[in-house]
Amino acid sequence: MNSLALGLRLVVRGPRATQLRFLLMTLGCALGVACLAAALSIPAILAAHDGRAAGRDVQGGPSSGALFLERKDPFGSRPLTRIFISPPKTGSVPLPPGVERVPQPGEVVVSPALRDLLAERPGLKGALPGRVVDTIGPAGLTGPQELYAYVGRTRAQLPADEARPLGGYGNRWTAPDEAAIDDGTVAPLRFTLCCLVLLPLFVYLSVCVRLSAEARSRRLASLRLLGLSARDTMRVSAVETLCAAAVGAVLGVGLHLLVNAFVAQTGWVGLAWYPADGLPSAWTLAACLLGCPALAYLAGRRHAREAALRPLAVRRQAQPGKPRRWLAALLVLPGLGIVTAYCVLGVLGVHVEPSALTSFLVPAGALLTGAGLVLALPPVTAWLAARVAATTQRLPLTLAMRHHEAAPGAALRVVSGLVLLVYAASLTQGVLVELDQVSRRTAPNQEYAVPFRQVTAEQRAAMTKVEGVSGHATLTYPTPDQSGILVATCGQLEKFVRPGSMRGCVDGRPLALHDPGTAPYDLRERGRTHAIALRDEDGRAAGSARFTVPEEIVTFSVAQPSALTSTVLLVPPKALPPDLHPAGAQLLLSGAPEPEAVQATLDRLAGIAPTAQIDPVGIVIESLRQLSVVKGLLGTGMILGLVIGVAAFLVSATDRAMDRRRRTATLTLLGIRTRTLRAAQCAQVLLPLAVGIGGALVAGRLAESSYLVTGGGAVFWDGEGLPLLLLSGLGVLAVAGLASLPMARRHLDPELLRRD
User: Fold this and answer.
1) What is the DSSP letter of 676?
2) Lowest mean pLDDT among 102-116, 171-185, 405-419, 505-519
């Protein structure tokens, strides 16, 4: 108890430098714990999102007597979901989660975000026929920015062939269709966030709990020489470290709660959530409130133990031991071996399919490489500093290299955060390249498919005249092998193909269709007869028509994906009887491909036929939404990693400059100019940083390429991002060089030299 009381007294009543060091350690641990809590809360946020999505999943069944119809359309990168409900005349209807009463015909219950959107975009009202009578509560929404609505309709207003009996809500057995992130994306996201946040965070917390390590070691050695036992000396050191880490952990959890309450509903990370979803779980609190003090104790134990067992050596600043090379090799060699092996397979052109093995080996190799890269810096830079010092004739460089050779671990604390940041940036770039292959769209037009049976003739005519629609045609698939027949003129066909790619089209007669970019022309199609069943406007059978594929071929090129890929025959509209259309026909529309134009066109089409299924060909709304979430989380990870890396550099650089004051004063007294000291300080930081950033760029490119090779995409090597990474590395060197200038003064403080 006496040693504990002594440790507390040194913290509370110690000199101003000790109190300032305690404050910096506390604030540094608070920032690190806040970042750790934010990273660990992401799975809880995603689980809450998926749980509410599963709880409101509409289930079919004959129990309630009500009918429902679900429509989901893209609104930018978010889905607009409409549940049309036709309640029975008598009896009760299951209530959706978050809804107080089922909307009657002519009534609409919307989410708060959709209510605000209706005020901004009156044209969207056509997709929600009725009067808004209430809003959906948080229990029925995956997040505050979700666009969701329940629309009351009569039975006659719902398509008889699509409406299903409403049995209830909630699905416990299968994953919801609206999962925030699918299972295949969770693994690479978790791996990337670990590299972006957890590796720099470990380094940062280690830096914070070892502030003024040399001064603290000398103070502990003094206590040991005054008669304090080795065990009590260790306890005194642990009290200061654990107090700073514990207080910082509590402040960090509080900072996380404040940031969570502010960021949650903004959708800043691509996903909006309720603040309660981001509250730290019991495991997160345990990792923050217990893990941070435990890490602080382990990080400070080494220096405390050295001061307790070798107090004279610490007081006299004996030469520290050489860094352990075997530990760095134990990590970096297996990691580089894994990522290099996959890169060699990529060079040989071997396509490695994604599997459970690659999902384990690639992240493991990247993490081992990143950790080994940091641990390899002291022995590598110490060897290099000795070689430079032996050959140079410049005094600043000699001072810098000899000091770094003697204590390479001191510079490691300064540069390791920035080195890991550059390494993680390269990995993140590889993930974004892989995702960009999914989201990139270069088509000259956007197609929309609307089933004929869901719209009337008047609605179809109105859709073809909608602003933003440049062309229309009729498409049907009458054959079992899904060979399509297009009913259109040459002018209408031209609106769906690449400009200038159509050849051989003549109006007024059937023609064969072929896209040379998809597959060779099948000669068996020549002379083949296709029978098309016809329907009138009421959907009743009205005979059939037969068309033979001629020898004349119309060649064209469409951007994939396209509904015209499998079409084999072009039929002029006049070849069909008036007021009749093919059975199973779709109204095919063409418009501009820009996201804003696509959204405006979807709004106008939904206003004409609210219950019709409007399919934007090639746009998978769930993929777009998940892509937005993943990019937002990766961007958040990059910001957290940047904050952690820069904070680690600033804290360690400032702390190192404070520890060097006595040495700087001694050199100044010996006649070394301030300019020389500053140059030496700058060189001593730039050497390990340049070596580390060079290694991070090489190792990061190998790890990035191994991820691309095993990701299943077409891009193996990302050459476009290399100049940006090189410029970023040079920028980091420039900023670090300016920020590492020593606190050299002309005024000599006698207190700094009194002991010498």
Assistant:
1) H
2) 171-185
Instruction: Please determine, for residue 558, whether its predicted confidence score (pLDDT) is greater than 80.
Output: yes
Please tell me what DSSP assigns to residue 471. Answer: E
CA-based end-to-end distance of the chain:
34
d(CA 409, CA 386): 15
The DSSP bridge pattern shows strands 529-535 and 541-548 to be antiparallel
- H or E stretch covering 534: strand 529-535
- Cα 684 to the center of its chain, rounded Å: 36
Q: Which of 664, 753, 727, 712 is nearest to 187 (CA)?
A: 712
CB atoms within 10 A of CB 356: 8
Residues 537/448, Cβ–Cβ less than 8 Å: no
- Residues 90/614, Cβ–Cβ less than 8 Å: no
* CA nearest neighbour of 45 among 165, 163, 189: 189
Taking a C-beta distance cutoff of 8 angstroms, is the pair 450, 605 a contact? yes
Indicate the SS3 state at residue 293. helix
Rounded to whole angstroms, how far apart are CA atoms 648 and 215?
19
Cβ(695)–Cβ(373) below 8 Å: yes
List, in sequence order, the alpha helices (H) in 85-163: 112-120
pLDDT band at 463 (very low <50, low <70, confident <90, very high): very high
pTM: 0.68
Q: d(Cα 125, Cα 340) in Å, to the nearest integer?
A: 56
d(CA 243, CA 7): 10
Percent pLDDT > 70 in the chain is 74
Exposed (0-12), middle (13-18) or buried (19+): which is 508, by Cβ within 10 Å?
Answer: exposed
Handedness of CA 600, 603, 609, 613 (dihedral sign): positive
- Could you report the per-residue pLDDT of 258-317, keeping only the tens digit for each? 988 888 877 766 678 888 888 888 888 888 888 878 877 776 676 677 676 766 766 665
What single letter denotes the amino acid at residue 138? Answer: P
Those residues with Cβ within 8 angstroms of residue 22's Cβ, 6 or more apart along the chain or in another chain:
11, 240, 243, 244
d(CA 564, CA 548) in angstroms, rounded, equals 19
**Tokens 């396509």 identify what position?**
351
Give the pLDDT confidence of 703-733 residue by residue, as tens digits.
Answer: 877 777 776 566 566 666 677 777 777 877 7
| Run of H or E residues at 637 | helix 621-659
The burial of 674, by beta-carbon neighbours within 10 Å (0-12 exposed, 13-18 middle, 19 or more buried), is given as: middle
Question: CA 604, 605, 609, 612 torsion: positive or negative?
Answer: negative
Average pLDDT of span 509-518: 86
Rounded-to-integer distance, Cα 362 and Cα 710, Å: 8
Do 617 and 563 meet the contact criterion of CB atoms below 8 Å apart?
A: yes
DSSP designation for 516: T
- Residue 151, strand partner residues: 84, 108
Residue 325 has pLDDT above 70, yes or no: no
pLDDT digits (tens, 9 = 90+) for 182-197: 655 666 666 666 666 6
Residue type for position 334: P
Q: 565-590: per-residue pLDDT in tens?
A: 888 889 898 888 888 888 888 999 99
Cβ atoms of residues 323 and 378 within 8 Å = yes
Q: Are 526 and 511 in contact (CB under 8 A)?
A: no
Residue-level pLDDT at 136: 93
